[in-house]
Design a protein that fits this description.
Elements: H1 2-50, H2 74-79, E1 83-88, E2 94-98, H3 107-119, E3 124-127, E4 130-136, E5 143-149, H4 151-226, H5 230-256, E6 265-268, H6 269-279, H7 281-286, E7 290-295, E8 300-303, H8 305-322, E9 328-335, E10 340-347, H9 368-374, H10 380-390, E11 394-400, E12 404-410
Parallel strand pairs: 7-9
Antiparallel strand pairs: 1-2, 1-5, 3-4, 4-5, 6-8, 9-10, 10-12, 11-12
Helix pairs in contact: 1-4, 4-5, 5-10, 6-8, 8-10
């Protein structure tokens, strides 16, 4: 149980850390992309305003002076960028091409790219490694198309993404190691509390057995003198109920807290199930329940035989108690390529209004009055699931309309 709690603590903590890292790194990269995009747009507008010639910006943006450590002004932006410029006349003919600020394209390639962009419906866009902007020419009539090489910015964004991802993975690994180291200390109070609860249930169960046995024996002795009465009968019935309740509580304490190892061995589950069904033949007959069995012969299972027998008894007992009077019970045992599948199905007066998994909650009873009458405790299914899990199996419930419940155990 301590390992299970520790595992859940680590998983929960790492999910929270993973979500936090994803938001943090995602925010950093998203902000970097937005800032880079804004810088590219600013550069395009500055180059377009200058017509590709930084001298056109003077005196608005004079060249930086030696020793100036401030941000780039417009002049510096133009001088440090890789771009080419193509001018069009009023009729859309190319009248000027300048590729002196880039070595990536020739004049012919620049003219072809400019014509394709000019014929487009938008005045800005992207083609290959270039971002372009088409605006009014600062020199004469017509339009000017500016194509800015953004490969460096794209590489920079990718580098930030890779570096932040690598840093995130390293941090995630360090946090995983730290959470594992601290998890045992974090769950220690819970583990100690659960251990005390287990010890209390175990001790209380053993202590209560003695007075219950005395009450039952004294009641039987009293009936020898006065005969059986409704009061003595009620005393014996409730004593039997308390004995059964304490028995199931002790099963839960042993299974869920891992008290004692599972003594697994190979045995014939088909024979064990047939014998268990036979033991419940009389209670089924008393409630006029019809039984259908489909038990494949020779199916073996590697598990604890005693615990598996207890699991079968709990499931069959639950089925007999909660089946409707005159209803039907179906028991099947099959083997697939990977699993041994046990199904026990019964009809009922009405399907519960809660999800099937709720049936495995401790002390859950859909109808408390009916459960009291039938002798149920509300913990049989919880104990059965604990036994199945202790033997590396699973137990689930499903509703089959209109009026059937099916319990499936897989090993």
């Amino acid at each position: 149980m301590i390992r299970s709690l520790q595992r859940r603590f680590v998983i929960t903590a790492m999910i929270a850390i993973t979500v936090l890292l994803l938001f943090l790194l995602g925010g950093i990269n998203a902000a970097n992309i937005v800032i880079t995009g804004n810088e590219i747009d600013r550069t395009l507008h500055v180059i377009s305003r200058s017509g590709g010639n930084a001298e056109n910006l003077v005196p608005d943006s004079p060249p930086p002076r030696p020793g100036d450590t401030g941000p780039k002004n417009d002049y510096d932006v133009v001088m440090s960028s890789n771009f080419f410029v193509v001018r069009f006349d009023a009729q859309g003919n190319i009248i000027y091409t300048d590729v002196s600020r880039t070595s990536a394209v020739s004049e012919a390639e620049a003219a072809q790219m400019a014509l394709q962009a000019y014929d487009g419906e938008t005045g800005s866009g992207k083609t290959g490694r270039f971002r372009y902007l088409i605006g009014d020419s600062p020199v004469g009539m017509g339009k000017t198309a500016v194509f800015l090489d953004t490969s460096e910015e794209r590489f920079s964004s990718l580098r930030v993404l890779l570096l932040s991802g690598a840093a995130g993975l390293v941090c995630w690994g360090l946090m995983l190691a730290l959470v594992i180291l601290l998890s045992r200390r974090a769950i220690r109070p819970i583990a100690e509390n659960m251990e005390k609860q287990k010890q209390f249930v175990t001790n209380a169960g053993h202590e209560i057995k003695t007075p219950l046995a005395i009450i039952q024996s004294n009641t039987e002795a009293l009936e020898l003198y006065t005969g059986e009465t409704k009061w003595s009968r009620n005393i014996k019935d409730q004593t039997i109920r308390l004995n059964g309740l304490m028995k199931n509580l002790l099963v839960l304490a042993r299974m869920e807290e891992g008290a004692g190892p599972v003594k697994a061995s190979d045995f014939c589950l088909s024979d064990a199930l047939t014998e268990a069904v036979g033991r419940f033949a009389q209670p089924m007959e008393a409630r006029h329940l019809s039984l259908e069995t489909e038990i494949a012969p020779g199916i073996s299972l590697h598990a604890d035989p005693l615990q598996t027998e207890q699991l079968l008894s709990l499931l069959l007992d639950n089925t007999v108690k909660y089946a409707n009077e005159g209803g039907s019970i179906q028991v099947s045992l099959t083997k697939t390529e990977k699993h041994v599948v046990l199904k026990i199905q019964n009809t009922c007066e009405a399907l519960p209004s809660v999800p099937p998994e709720k049936l495995f909650d401790r002390f859950y009873r859909a109808d408390a009055a009916r459960t009291q009458k039938n002798g149920g405790y509300g913990i049989g299914l919880s104990a059965a699931r604990s036994i199945a899990q202790a033997n590396k199996g699973s137990l689930h419930a499903a509703y089959i309309p209109p009026d059937s419940i099916c319990f499936t155990a897989e090993f």
